[in-house]
Amino acid sequence: MAMWIQAQQLQGDALHQMQALYGQHFPIEVRHYLAQWIENQQWDLVDMDNPAEEAKAKRLLDNLVAELQMKAQLQGGEDGFLLKIKLGHYANQLKSTYDRCPLELVRCIKHILHSEQRLVQEATKVSCGSGVVAMDTLSQRHQQINQTFEELRLATQETENELRKLQHSQEYFIIQYQENLRIQAQLSSLSSLTPAERTQRESALQSKRATVESWLTTEASTLQKHRLDLAEEHQKTFSLLRKQQTLILDEELIQWKRRQQLAGNGGPHEGGLDVLQSWCEKLADLIWQNRQQIRRCEHLTQQLPLPGPMEELLNKLNADITDIISALVTSTFIIEKQPPQVLKTQTKFAATVRLLVGGKLNVHMNPPQVKAVIVNEQQAKALLKNESTHSESSGEILNNNCVMEYHQATGTLSAHFRNMSLKRIKRSDRRGAESVTEEKFTVLFEAQFSVGSNELVFHVKTLSLPVVVIVHGSQDNNATATVLWDNAFAETGRVPFIVPDKVLWHQLCEALDMKYKAEMHSERGLSEDNQVFLAQKAFTSSSNNPEDYRTMTISWAQFNRDSLPGRNFTFWQWFDGVVELMKRHLKPHWNDGAILGFVNKQQAQDMLLSKPNGTFLLRFSDSEIGGITIAWVAENPNKSGERMVWNLLPYTTKDFTIRSLADRISDLNHLLFLYPDRPKDEVFAKYYTPPLSKAVDGYVKPQIKQVVPESDNMLDPDGDFDLEDTMDVARHVEELLRRPMAKQWSSQQS
């Protein structure tokens, strides 16, 4: 209910925008009287692209109607009688409207709530303290756009008024012109009169004709000037329209697309399209009004041709306005929900395309069909150069046609591809050392429709973000590297799909940090020390100074083509292994700050030797992809009075599917303090598996525990435990369970 209370405090244009969200599709009274119930429902958990979610949406609709009916029944007294009738009517209205399409109700309410939240947030930013307005750059830019729209509205209204005056003047001119023709006809008919009568009438008519012709001559010049002035005003309006459209399409929309691309790397969500759509719709309205004015000017010019440059001027204005509206329509056909950028063949995927001006230009009255095809990099380049690539594709997508749907509640025209599948792919010849997971494709969406009673026909197309096609899950790791590099370092307006081969190290760190935080669902990303550790690994360096790496560049080959020195994996493969391990099993421990992770063996030794025995830390393995090890300080059994740092063989995902990290740490009694000095139970106890329950039907469930023997022959020269030679009961049991039963039985008998 807090949101509704804040929404009611909105003023001016924000209040009008909020009120415009409501109507017959969802009355504002329902929002008011069910405010708390509406805000308590988890509308965002309903997946609009999944038809299976319809049952969930139906329950929400039924509950909404029941709440509304209950609220109606509670109204009593003289004042509540009309409200009781009204709320009951709304309950029936919503039931009949959305009973067959409950997902549309969810879409409508989500749109309303998100829009209210945006309006409240914008209002909060704009007003602060004692009436002092504090606006950030974004707010200032939005205010500038809204002010320009007001200027355009006033200019369009002014030219409309002038056009009406011109029309009235021209109509009167034509009447006077007809009057002049009538006088001329009367003069011609005087021959039938007597000379005396003819002289008398002729003198009067000629005087009248001279007056009218003089007026017509003067008025013709006035009309021509009026036409030229109006054309000049239209040119000014078009210039402002073009400037406004450039700001919205080439800056705001491009920035939204860039945010969408970075969201593919884990960046913040790109945000809704409601504000952009409202701007594009205002542009469409204004452009169309001005276009209609030009058409009327052309009609007036044809109706009364006058000598001068008007025909040429109107042709240019018509061409300009057609260019503007064409650019608007083709640029606002966008991909709202991108297909997955790592695309596996024979696997279902989804995407959504949207036409931001579809509602205003009445495209929804005859909704177009959108087709999706997959094209390679060369075909994408040809498309952007407007070279013919008709029917060319690089593969076959099933269920690749979809009719655009108009959602009246939100005013959006979109096509939801829910069940596409890439049946086959045709690869290009690869360049040099390029692997299949470095080859980029894109999904082309295209449609054709007309506006203005078939006056203008548009063939629109838009390309998805680059996708890498894989046929097996083992390729996912390298494909993700290609996508991450492209998303992070693609430049606006590039030729598909060129990216720099080298980037500054700190730029890559920003991309890795974004990815890491997104996967961990945490604000704890890669610290400066973590980034130094990664730089040491990437550049085979020993420097601990961050400044040494600030101006260094890293190439794509160093990132994910060449193996690290002495290893059989690349820098990215090592990093991605860490991310996968953390994401699957260790996310809570990272977010708790329990895992240092990015620490090498020597650093761990230096850190631990200054701490009491039993102090331990968790660091990622240098030698194994997706491995994490425990290092701890204890006495050296071979040298009395000397301490040393011990290291367990790294754990991997395989180990944590058997027994969790917290339980393994609990098993090892010699681990006492998490570095620097936190008792281990204080950190990990909340993650321990609860004690086993009592026996059921006489059976006691066995318990797996990890044991590390204290014998010195289990150590290698570096103080590492090889768990293959220790009593790691978890692994032993796993191997035992894998053996065929017959072999187990025969070995027991022997």
Task: Describe the 3D structure.
The strands form six sheets. Strands 20-19-16-17-18-21 form a six-stranded mixed beta sheet. A hairpin with a 4-residue loop joins strand 11 (441-451) and strand 12 (456-463). Helix 9 (195-263) packs antiparallel against helix 10. Mean pLDDT is 85; it is low at 128-135, 723-734 and 736-750. It is built from 23 helices and 21 strands. By secondary structure, the protein is of the alpha+beta class.
Beta-strand content:
5-15%
Number of strands: 21
Give the proportion of residues in helices. 40-55%
Radius of gyration: 37 Å
Strand neighbour order, sheet with most strands: 20-19-16-17-18-21
Query: Which residues form runs of ≥5 with pLDDT under 50?
Result: 128-135, 723-734, 736-750
Global morphology: elongated
Count of DSSP-assigned helices: 23
Biggest pleated sheet: 6 strands, mixed
Mean pLDDT: 85
Alpha carbon gap, first and last residue: 74 Å
Structural class: alpha+beta
Keywords: Activator, Coiled coil, Cytoplasm, DNA-binding, Nucleus, Phosphoprotein, SH2 domain, Transcription, Transcription regulation
Organism: Gouania willdenowi
Domain SH2: 590-691
GO cellular component, one term: cytosol
